[in-house]
């Protein structure tokens, strides 16, 4: 039995129903996040009450030292004092649920094995996925029923860019969902769509990480996970803007990567036109009526049996092959597109300016191609377990169009099937750009729809952002699981992080990369976990030397 101390009962450090202090024995220690257990007898009964909790605060001080200089004399041995070591514990669980204070003098032990699982409610997780490793070296888990839509859904990860390792942790949890064996026969049909927003970091997920150390491999074993790359991944890149053929716009990887794009006819048929106006830097709320009119007109013009590669018929029998053509057609015949609203020249001109700007921003993405090319330029997200869509080189407005269009498409596909299984996991970074707290945009509507209705359809959002305070509040509120990395000192004081409490808010300002503070509904306190180094390559220099990912390698020798 790992006994570490006793429950204190002094006036300043008294025992209460939801917290108590421990006097730590000489030769023992407690650190932050340790899980402890104490037992006391219920007064007037033979029943034993068990208290479980986590260490929130630790302190050492000289008893008998009143002034700062007393500590100097005590260190020299000229002042008789005792060294006190105490720890404050936040109670997480009481069994049976009789909320009385622990008895001062009760023995306290460090929780291990089943007691640790009881204290952190792991024993109440019927289905759990690996979430990281505790300070004690024990594995910790996420209650999958609060992620997969059974009792709740969605994950929100917040932290400073480049330090909080938000994307790395999101990928780790995704890897755990797909490879822990929890999904059983559903695993082969479960799908994930990931948007790559920074460099080409996520275009190597199917390659083993050459820099993975043996100690990191052991962490995967401890968590019950295989130590491999993502085994079934498809990669998609936008085409080069001015290339005659559909060539991927990536630099370091071109083998094993496909292109994606849309024709104007596809945009009309699928009602995707509004996503061209999703740039959060411009307020388009006053133009909603005009945007919807164009969208409806495009849909009616493409409501025929022609192929998606064929041009859209214009208002004056001139084919519309691009947004530039659409701009000219609207300018020449605004009454055809806007009807009675065409007389409002200010709004018409504002729409035309935005269409012309969008035509330049999406050049290469929205284009006319042959039937054969179009078949090859489709994002077949159901063909791979993991689909990575690269958007890092696109302009802000083009990113909005791509993310909005893909989310709308996959969400409609799931709606059409009418079932919550198999799961579709969607991972988006920089969520504050796509679903900002203020303003309106079509993509924000889609993300809100996913956060509120996705649970019933098996569409799970894994969202990451630097500042949760700038994300639409309903998106954050609907996320059952919240993970926090290194935080800005001003941001962490916002109400969105109220669940952390003072101690964890202070720690969020200091924690190192690879460490997260995790909060989930079944555990009444946040928990700090470390997660292992990625087993998959996250940048080109982590790929094994014999892996051919660089199309220019032969010219560099």
Structure, described:
- With 557 residues, the chain is of the alpha/beta class.
- Helix content is 28%, strand content 20%.
- The protein has helices at residues 68-76, 113-119, 166-179, 214-222, 264-269, 288-301, 323-332, 334-338, 345-361, 371-376, 396-417, 431-434, 442-457, 473-477, 501-508, 553-556; strands at residues 3-7, 19-24, 35-41, 48-63, 82-95, 107-110, 128-133, 139-143, 155-158, 191-196, 233-237, 258-259, 312-313, 319-320, 386-390, 424-428, 459-465, 481-484, 515-519, 527-530.
- A ten-stranded mixed beta sheet has the order 12-11-15-10-16-17-9-18-19-20, with helices on both faces. Strands 1-2-5-4-3-6 form a six-stranded antiparallel β-barrel.
- Helix 7 packs antiparallel against helix 9 (345-361).
- It is elongated and about 100 Å long.
Labels describing this entry:
single chain; 557 residues; alpha/beta; Elongation Factor Tu (Ef-tu), domain 3; Rossmann fold; six-stranded antiparallel barrel; 20 strands; 20% strand
Layout of strands and helices, then pairs:
Blueprint: E1 3-7, E2 19-24, E3 35-41, E4 48-63, H1 68-76, E5 82-95, E6 107-110, H2 113-119, E7 128-133, E8 139-143, E9 155-158, H3 166-179, E10 191-196, H4 214-222, E11 233-237, E12 258-259, H5 264-269, H6 288-301, E13 312-313, E14 319-320, H7 323-332, H8 334-338, H9 345-361, H10 371-376, E15 386-390, H11 396-417, E16 424-428, H12 431-434, H13 442-457, E17 459-465, H14 473-477, E18 481-484, H15 501-508, E19 515-519, E20 527-530, H16 553-556
Parallel strand pairs: 9-17, 9-18, 10-15, 10-16, 11-12, 11-15, 16-17
Antiparallel strand pairs: 1-2, 1-6, 2-5, 3-4, 3-6, 4-5, 7-8, 13-14, 18-19, 19-20
Helix pairs in contact: 7-9, 11-13
